[in-house]
Amino acid sequence: MAWKRLLRKKIIGIICNLFFLVPLFSQTVSFDSLVREFADAINPALPLAANMGLNWSTPYVGQIIGYPMHFGLGVFVGSAFMGNSELSALGEAMGLTIEESMIKGKQWLPNYAVVARIGGVADIPFDVGIKVGFLPDTALWGSLNYNSTLFGFDVHYAVHIPPRNGPVITVGLGYDRLMSEINGMGRIPDSDFETDELARIVWESHTITAQMAFSQPVLSTGLSLFGGVALGAGINRAGVKFGSDMNDPVYENMKGMFTLFFSGSAGIGYEIGVFRIDASFRWNFINFEPGLGIGFRYQR
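^ thats the sequence. predicted structure below, dont judge the formating
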């Protein structure tokens, strides 16, 4: 009968429409998935961002006892880079607009550190380095605030000290600690909160590295070529927090992670009396992202 054929057509049409709508529902990405994708993207970048400041053109400064006393004190600024897509997608879900860095498609993790290295004792060819940095809320990444805290230390042992103009080679161990965030006014996705909250995208890292470094003077020009490799592991956390109290947030979603760290660096240093200027390029072999840095110090 005609009405049965019409009913059959309507049922078939409804079933077809449901099949067409299934891909639309499956493409909906949850907020938790966005947090996880961001955490996975920033995870391998954090050790390189933390491992900056003590990569000097002088990998071994000498003994502290004697004349002159061997030590160095200065400042270092630098940044690691990562892809911007996962970060901007997370920010958009939170109501935050995140702009790219000076490199298209990349985001930067800038920092600075006050750095010092002091020579060893007892005729053992080692020295100890330490770095501390604190960057308060600074307008970066568009209209957002960025802040960061950096701490670290290392010990270098000189395995080769040439009598004349040959390369200095050291091996060592180091520890780096990094805590950073960006923040602005946003809203918690998929929640009952009607008002804007202080929205934070946060990350932190603990990294232990084994290091090898070298430095080669360029004749008597004051220039030197330096570089090295670092191999280690990092325990990281990254995610989001909402609310003015960082330690008691209104809402948080943090992911714990582990990553290996393998990087190489190369740079050029210039000596002007007791002052040194270093510029270096670093490369993360885990996520194939770069890092840049420049340092200025007093050294004896």
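The longest strand covers residues 251-272.
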